Amino acid sequence: MNKTLLLAPLAAIAISAMNCVSQTAKPQTFSEAVQQIISEPQFRHVSFGIEVYSLDDQKPLFTLNSQKLFTPGSTTKLLTEGTALQLLGPDYRFHTFVYRTGEIDSKGTLKGDLVLVASGDPNLSNRLQPDGTLAFADEDHTYGGPESKLVPGDPLVVIKEFAKQISAAGIKRVQGKVLVDVSLFPEGERELGTGVVISPIAVNDNVIDVTIQPSDAPNKPAVLTYSLQVPSIRFENHIVTVAGAKSSFEEPETIDNADGTQTVVLAGSVAQSSGPHIYGYPVASPSRFAVVALNEALREVGVKVDAKPDTITSASKYGSFSTPQYKVAEHVSAPFAEEVKVTLKVSHNLHASMTPYILGAVLGKTTEKIDQKGFALEYDFLTKAGLDLSGASQADGAGGASSAFYTPDFMVHYLAYMAKQKSYPVFLKALPILGKDGSLVKVQRDLPAAGHVFAKTGTYGTEDLLNMHLMLEGKGLAGYTTTPSGQRLAFALYLNHLELPDDSNAAEIAGEALGAIASAAYSLPIDKATLDVQ
Description:
Blueprint: H1 17-20, H2 30-38, E1 47-54, E2 59-64, H3 76-88, E3 95-100, E4 109-110, E5 114-117, H4 157-168, E6 173-174, E7 178-181, E8 207-213, E9 223-226, E10 233-242, E11 248-249, E12 253-256, E13 262-271, E14 277-282, H5 286-300, E15 304-305, E16 310-312, E17 327-332, H6 336-346, H7 349-363, H8 370-384, E18 392-393, E19 405-406, H9 408-418, H10 424-430, E20 453-464, E21 469-482, E22 488-496, E23 498-500, H11 505-523
Parallel strand pairs: 4-6, 5-7, 6-15, 7-16, 10-13
Antiparallel strand pairs: 1-2, 1-22, 3-5, 3-17, 8-9, 8-14, 11-13, 12-13, 18-19, 20-21, 21-22, 21-23
Helix pairs in contact: 2-11, 3-6, 3-7, 4-5, 6-10, 7-8
């Protein structure tokens, strides 16, 4: 059940540039700080790539291997979300409709089906707040673990609102069935970080949240609670409370039953002394998950549905009914600026992975190779921006593909371009803030740089079976800061190929180093004599 390190958000990094190097003299310049950090023994096999760029003078101030390609992890999301923000616009909204395919008689019987048409909205959940913003927890629920938190409220609130609107439209019985149309783009591929299924429908981020807590005594079953439940998925609890401080969870076993339902077996052990653990179980079929939930919500408001729910991948059967005359329910999303904020703040893999498909379908209006069309639109955008794309490689929206690479020079020039756009205030506001929120919430809270560094983190790791360790292939931190003197900087920091004893050290070792370098860029003078250090 443990999530892979791939693209996991940056965890606790609570040191300064001075503390990062234990027994050395306090650095007086940025280059001294960098040299002390990269000279630490644990980094003897590591490759560093650094560029700090002046947004005021439009030139690099410090470079180290800045023309080399580095594994970027989730800093890829800067490209994905920035492109979508520019192309769709910060005010773009998703409209998700429910249509009827027949007439409603005097008794409230619909002589046809109900069709929920997926729009690609990533936030059919309780994130939407009364003021129109989207809420998020700094440690997102889809990553799971003891630090994850759930956004308050009912994750099925949008689905239940659909049911209320359908009932208010005068429908008391559906002679046909409830359908979810996922023809916008293909469903089924799993994003590469947490394994959640990509789909044009995303109810509660396509997961069921399981909160795992220890019982009051060893050898007793753990106490499980669920953020939502649907009749088609049943959980079996085989997690046992154990003495000690270490919990261990196995990968869940999903059993497909003859009647179309699924049984999910959760196994492992939870330490009696531990707090609650959040586990987001990724549903195998988001469309079925959504349609069963809507069917159940209709039952709860007194609407009877005669046939079993189903999924369709083509709108051709009911195309003539997808008109205002036949609309019975609608959900309008928050502005896209809010979606960008959620994705960048918490490093949301599913949302970022959906974005190329959304661009390809909504703007590219294609029905084949839809994600590739999304990347073609990104390519055109970056080319028109005058960027050298020989310094970039991307194959998914989140940064989990093995072919993801960027040079620090490419990244800072991209950031510099974004800083000139009208959407820049939205883009900047969407980035995690050092020591304040998102994936940087625990970083350097009490140091001068806290609140002044706006940056996206990235982590990409794989197993080293030979040494029975973890190979941290890529750690990244890229974004903006404004120094106390008012100098505006863009920076891209990468660290590749660090052998770790276990994944708990990823943030403590690599994260400390990059956090310290970012802090030094904010607080120390960048001596121009270091220009073009390679």
